[in-house]
Design a protein that fits this description.
The complex is a heterodimer of chains A (542) and B (305).
Chain A: E1 3-14, E2 21-31, E3 35-39, H1 46-53, E4 61-70, E5 73-77, E6 82-83, H2 86-92, E7 97-100, H3 114-124, H4 131-144, H5 150-153, H6 163-174, E8 181-185, H7 193-210, E9 213-218, H8 221-227, E10 230-235, E11 238-244, H9 245-250, H10 255-263, E12 283-292, E13 301-311, E14 316-320, H11 327-335, E15 342-347, E16 350-352, H12 361-365, E17 367-370, H13 384-394, H14 400-409, H15 426-438, E18 444-448, H16 456-473, E19 476-481, H17 484-490, E20 493-498, E21 501-507, H18 508-513, H19 518-526
Parallel strand pairs in A: 3-9, 3-10, 7-8, 8-9, 14-19, 14-20, 17-18, 18-19
Antiparallel strand pairs in A: 1-2, 1-4, 4-5, 5-6, 10-11, 12-13, 12-15, 15-16, 20-21
Chain B: H1 2-29, H2 34-37, H3 44-53, H4 60-73, H5 86-122, H6 125-140, H7 143-157, H8 170-199, H9 202-209, H10 214-243, H11 246-251, H12 257-266, H13 270-298, H14 300-304
Helix pairs in contact in B: 1-13, 5-8, 5-10, 5-13, 6-8, 7-8, 8-10, 10-13, 12-13
The chains are: A alpha/beta (542), B mainly alpha (305).
GO molecular function (chain A): ATP binding; ATP hydrolysis activity
Keywords (chain A): ATP-binding, Cell membrane, Membrane, Nucleotide-binding, Transport
Subcellular location (chain A): Cell membrane
């Protein structure tokens, strides 16, 4: 069996006088028709390694050692001073090796019709093909990746396509020239779990047709388990472990691999609930309706359609569903950010008005929020201390000891107080976000995808912290998430939403062991698992 | 689209009305023109007689309504000083100003696009630095002084180009050069920043990863995306140019609208002020509407929103 891509001893450093090593002596190999999973957390160098193979390294980084051989052509050999030129690389890109990138929202040109973009991907390596023929081929390709009415949709622009459909278009472009190698860099991270399953199925299906090998770069071990023949685990720019996927996952030889696997959300519910009886309910929301007025439409769009939630003190209720199901709108209605057009909200035993402006300051203190993205949720110019002190200052309750206590509560010692958010890791920032939300002693915390921007090992730490804080303060959590694995390990009860309505509500154990609604079953089936069903294409005959 | 244009027209009417009202109030607040029009030795009675013959003894409301009626019928009255139709005087000067503004705008923008694309294509930091420094230098010199420098070099020292009036194409060169260099610097800054931002976008990486040439990606993908915000600025700016070439018109004795308007303001020649302002306001709204229509054609997302 011949090798499609061989990377030997690759070293990538940053430019400048004091270069930092980002990838250090990485070797990997992809054989014809096989599927290689490259797994690692952010900063492991997994994307850089593969981008280097096509000469696509971001500005400010460069290869300083090793060899890269693609389809028997030596593209880089630092010792022999061989460097493939732009022209040679251009001939390989999209034809020998094609890429599918992470974010289908930004990976397409917003101004050009999707069909035209696919057609131009076709014409790059078939310049003699006429415009009309290229357009027809584009429609053919879009149809082959499951875009319905491709001929009509081809003329529309990316903003009119859903995330999953855009990723299908990306795949259509990638397979335009039946490449030997498909490189998928976190291809489903931005997608809902059910859509993720569809996209991975599609990738397996097109590989069946084209016989392409696949490099799947991801942080998700479950995804790799289901979609790769072999596995390479990376950490801090080095390869930690390589081997057949099944074998590695069944008996990991290296400590880091074991830690990664252990950090995956446990497939069991939390043992002891922290619910406190005798205290006022953290939240009683009854029959909430949220309408959005859309310009140019007479009838408003109903995002939440009569949803009721009750959260006891110390209880975690998770709301799960796909994007657009209304779970975030529900959270906003509870907080008063997007006032409910009908229904009642009672927080910590206190009935409050629908709109935030109608709530007194004391009422607003009762419910606080932790945001999804710890990078944009903190003012980059305030120190950690100032960030946590801000809500106290607003309520004229500032004292520096209180801030220190809050920071200690979330596991940040005094040395962090003077730092800026830019000097913190993602997990540390999220701890600051939690400390800030706790500053005013709320009864209810709305956690809007609080860990989905974090690496798995960090996820586990933050979830443990949330659990500890809940027990200490008797907090009620409204936990918004699309990640069922995370939900399982922290929630006491799960509410499944679809199209603005609750389709199922049950204790966590019951949701996972005995789901009633077909949509719940669909959600559960789509979650990739270490021992899940295999989706990999059979290797092409050698 | 039709609805959009209709809405813009309604906006134009409101804008013109507001401009005329403000001009009327400010004009009346600065006093009556009789004293300025008559020789120094005129008696108080002469001044009052002139003011009343011009209608300044009527109640303010009547004067205002009179102005509005004039606005609708296109009759702004005669210039107090020149005894000619104010609208006629303004329209007579308009082509000269449009000529100046148009060429300054087109040349400045075109050169900026070429320069920005060259910087991106060559990836030359030296080129960007040079252009950046030159630009900062140009912007730190006021227009009138830069104009005088040009006159000094090209008219006085080299004797190559005329420094005054509007007589031939050659007389167009220096005033246009003064304005166009300023425009060039501004658009280059905007466009270079916008293109550099696009260069880091995922869709650019996607196109490169498909094997597209970097130059193709630059021309067909990055440029359209980068030009949209620049066009918005350009619209505001061209509108401003049409009414704001005053300094340059004065330096080069260019017979344009700017000079006519400044003279009219200092002499309380209200009919000309009113007619001129209405023209400038209309030009501003029309140019901006045209730019918005253009942007909507390039970027259909804005049309949907």
């Amino acid at each position: 069996m011949s090798t499609v891509l061989r990377i030997e001893n690759l070293r990538i450093e940053t430019d400048g006088d004091t270069p930092r090593t980002l990838v250090d002596g990485v070797s990997l190999r992809v054989d014809r028709g096989e599927s290689l999973g490259v797994v690692g957390e952010s900063g492991s160098g997994k994307s850089l390694t593969v981008l280097a193979a096509l000469g696509l390294l971001p500005v400010g980084t460069r290869v300083t050692g090793g060899r890269i051989v693609l389809d028997d052509r030596v593209l880089v050999d630092v010792e022999a001073d061989v460097w493939a030129g732009e022209r040679e690389l251009r001939a390989l890109r999209g034809r020998t090796a094609a890429m599918v990138f992470q974010d289908p929202m930004s990976s397409l040109d917003p101004l050009r019709a999707v069909g035209a973009q696919v057609a131009s991907a076709v014409r790059v390596h078939a310049p003699r093909l006429g415009r009309r023929a290229a357009r027809e081929r584009a429609i053919e390709l879009l149809t082959s990746v499951g875009v319905r009415d491709a001929a009509d949709r081809a003329a529309t622009r990316p903003h009119q396509w859903s995330g999953g459909m855009r990723q299908r278009a990306m795949i259509a472009m990638a397979i335009a020239h039946d490449p030997l190698l498909l490189i998928a860099d976190e291809p489903t991270t931005a997608l809902d779990v059910t859509v993720q399953a569809q996209v991975m199925d599609l990738l397996a299906e097109v590989r069946e047709r084209t016989g392409s090998a696949l490099v799947l770069i991801t942080h998700d071990l479950g995804l790799v388990a289901e979609n790769s023949d072999r596995l390479t685990v990376m950490h801090h720019g080095r390869v930690v472990e390589t081997g057949a996927t099944r074998a590695v996952l069944a008996a990991p030889a290296e400590d880091y691999t074991r830690r990664l696997m252990a950090a995956m959300p446990a497939e069991q519910e939390r043992a002891t609930p922290a619910v406190r009886t005798g205290e006022a309910d953290a939240l009683v929301a009854d029959n909430i309706v949220v309408d959005y007025r859309v310009s140019g439409r007479k009838t408003p769009v109903r995002a939440v359609d009569g949803v009721s939630v009750r959260i006891m003190a110390g209880e975690t209720v998770a709301v799960v569903g796909e994007s657009g199901c209304g779970k975030s709108s529900l959270a906003k209605a509870v907080l008063g950010i997007q006032p409910a057009s009908a229904g009642t909200v009672v927080v910590g035993g206190v009935p409050v008005r629908a709109e935030l402006t109608g709530r007194s300051a004391a009422q607003r203190e009762l419910a606080q929020i932790v945001f999804q993205d710890p990078y944009s949720a903190l003012d980059p110019r305030l120190t950690v201390h100032e960030l946590v002190a801000e809500p106290l200052r607003i309520r004229r309750a500032y004292n520096s000891a209180a801030v220190a206590t809050l920071l200690a509560d979330v596991g940040l010692d005094e040395s962090y107080a003077k730092r800026l958010p830019g000097q913190l890791s993602g997990g540390q920032r999220q701890r600051v976000g939690i400390a800030r939300a706790l500053a005013l002693r709320p009864k209810l915390l709305v956690l809007d995808e609080p860990v989905s921007a974090l690496d798995v090992s960090i996820q586990a730490q933050v979830l443990t912290l949330l659990d500890t804080l809940q027990r200490e303060h008797g907090l009620g959590y409204l936990f918004i998430s699309h990640d069922l694995g995370v939900v399982r390990s922290i929630a006491d009860r799960v509410i499944v939403m679809q199209h603005g309505r609750v389709v199922e509500e049950a204790p966590t154990a019951q949701i996972f062991s005995d789901p009633q609604h077909p949509f719940t079953r669909q959600l559960l089936a789509a979650v990739p698992r270490l021992d899940g069903p295999r989706r990999t294409a059979r290797p092409a005959a050698a | 689209m039709l609805l959009f244009i209709a809405r813009r027209l309604a906006l134009a009417v409101t804008t013109v009305l507001a401009v005329v009202t403000i001009a009327f109030v400010l004009g009346r607040a600065t006093g009556e023109p009789g004293a300025l029009l008559l020789p120094d030795n005129a008696t108080q009675a002469d001044i009052q007689a002139l003011n009343s013959s011009l209608g300044f003894d009527r109640p303010l409301l009547v004067q205002y309504l009179d102005t509005l009626v004039g606005l609708v019928t296109g009759d702004f009255g005669d210039s107090y000083r020149l005894r000619e139709s104010a609208l006629g005087l303004v329209l007579e000067r308009v082509p000269a100003t449009i000529e100046l503004a148009f060429w300054a705008f087109v040349i400045g923008l075109a050169l900026a696009v070429v320069a920005a694309l060259t910087i991106q294509l060559t990836g030359s930091r030296v080129l960007r630095a040079i252009v950046g420094w030159a630009g900062a230098l140009r912007q730190s010199v006021p227009d009138f002084f830069f104009a005088l420098l040009l006159v000094l070099v090209f008219s006085v020292l080299l004797g190559a180009l005329p420094s005054l009036g509007r007589t031939s194409y050659a007389s167009l060169v220096l005033p246009v050069a003064t304005l166009a260099t300023g425009q060039f610097v501004m658009y280059l800054r905007l466009l270079d920043a916008a293109l550099s931002e696009q260069a880091g976008q995922d869709y650019v990486r996607t196109a490169i990863a498909q094997g597209q040439r970097r130059s193709t990606v630059l021309f067909t993908r990055m440029l359209p995306n980068a030009i949209v915000p620049v066009l918005g600025m350009a619209g505001l700016n061209l509108g401003g140019l049409l009414g704001g070439t005053v300094v340059v018109e004065v330096v080069f004795a260019w017979p344009g609208l700017g000079k006519l308007l400044t003279d009219a303001v200092s002499q309380r020649d209200f009919p000309i002020v009113q007619a001129g302002l209405v023209f400038v306001a209309l030009a501003f709204v029309i140019v901006n509407t045209a730019v918005d229509v253009l942007v909507r054609r390039i970027d259909t997302r804005t049309a949907a929103a």
